[in-house]
Amino acid sequence: MRLSATSHVDAAIVGAGIAGLVTATRLIEAGVSCAVLESQDRVGGRLLTHYSSAGRFDLGATWYWPGETRVAALIEELQIPTHAHHLAGDAMYHVPGGAQRMDGNPIDVVSGRFSDGASSLAERLADRLGDPVSLRTTVHEVAYSESELKVTHTHGSLSARHVVLALPPPLAVHSIDFRPPLPDHLHDLATATSVWMGTATKAVVVYREAFWRHDGLAGAAVSHVWPLRELHDMSGVNGDPAALFGFAPLGPGAPTPTEHDIVNQLVEIFGSDAAAPLEVIIKDWRLDGHAVPPGARPLTPMETYAHPRYQEPAGDGRIHWASTETAPDAPGHIEGAIAAAARAVKAITTDRSAIYGATSQPQQGDH
Ligand SMILES: Cc1cc2nc3c(=O)[nH]c(=O)nc-3n(C[C@H](O)[C@H](O)[C@H](O)COP(=O)(O)OP(=O)(O)OC[C@H]3O[C@@H](n4cnc5c(N)ncnc54)[C@H](O)[C@@H]3O)c2cc1C
């Protein structure tokens, strides 16, 4: 979209993560004009797939789970290829001094994977949306009054009837200047809400082959040794490309683990075959300013997730929360982001008279 100083839309959506993209898709289907303003040069947000010569590896979301009907429906709608997460084999248990084999795999659960990477969901939605998505466009200010709502961004400003905050609440209140300020209770709630997985470091280690499977291992492990606490197989269909991944939950100020730290730990757990990876990819989400405000808090108090105040629009019914943290169902997951988007869409589309204005109600025969 070519944004100009005079641009007007029914809904300005801040963030082209999965929540923002689903919101825009459903609003446009309902005849509501939208602009999606995304600060990065890519869509997807916490759906982040790393592309390398060896394959595609997810550094953000990896799985979806049985019962997540919204994700399943989106996969079906967009024809996204998927495969089952690898479960077969024994898991490992790692403590200081050594690792032992478990009987079976109590660590992994039945789940699905996006064969082209989780970003494929966002990329497919953005391709379909086309023009309304503006990359490299950071929203700095939302000014609202009874008569108008103005969204100021990198390239100018946009007037809108509604604004959808499809970014984590603590980041929204840290990086966007609301004029007038949001009510204290809402500002404090958003500040106190932690970003889902915002203090995690995710490491993906790529190998020539899934050697652990030859030994009857699942590639899963629980570790009480720094840095990775939980490990899983991240290989593609039939083990190709071959990869393991793990999470390191890190407190504020803790150093990002190095490639050396991670490979040493994998050798302790899986043996000397783990010593020669093709590639090690490390993503410390604490350092990603597009997801997490400075000084990210650990994911402990989750009582702010799905808070009733997020279910209601603010600013006279025109400022809507839509990130996964605000979702009434499955907050934190992709499923939650889609649920939060649906809530914002419902609130905006039931305000149709306000969107079209008293003099421009859609007439019979309009499309
Ligand atoms: C390491 C990790 C592992 C995960 N694993 C899973 C998993 O296996 N399964 C699962 O279901 N979920 C998982 N999740 C969670 C999942 O990724 C999120 O639920 C989902 O991607 C959130 O989508 P969202 O659209 O709500 O927010 P985001 O993806 O955070 O999107 C927000 C967007 O807003 C943009 N933005 C920020 N500030 C501004 C601004 N001022 N102006 C304009 N744009 C802005 C950002 O660049 C971003 O694109 C994981 C997350 C992480 C980090």
CATH architecture of the largest domain: 3-Layer(bba) Sandwich
Helix tally equals 10
Rg of Cα set: 22 Å
- Indicate the low-confidence ranges by residue numbers: 353-367
Shape: elongated
Helix fraction bin: 10-25%
Identify the CATH homologous superfamily of the largest domain. FAD/NAD(P)-binding domain
What's the pLDDT, averaged over the residues?
A: 92
CATH C-level of the largest domain: Alpha Beta
Helix-strand sequence? EHEEEEHEEEEHEEEEHEHEHEEEHEHEHH
Total beta-strand segments: 20
Structural class: alpha/beta
**Main sheet characteristics:** 8 strands, mixed
Name the hetero compounds present. Answer: flavin-adenine dinucleotide
* Proportion of strand residues: 25-35%
Brief summary of the model shown:
With 367 residues, the protein is an alpha/beta fold.
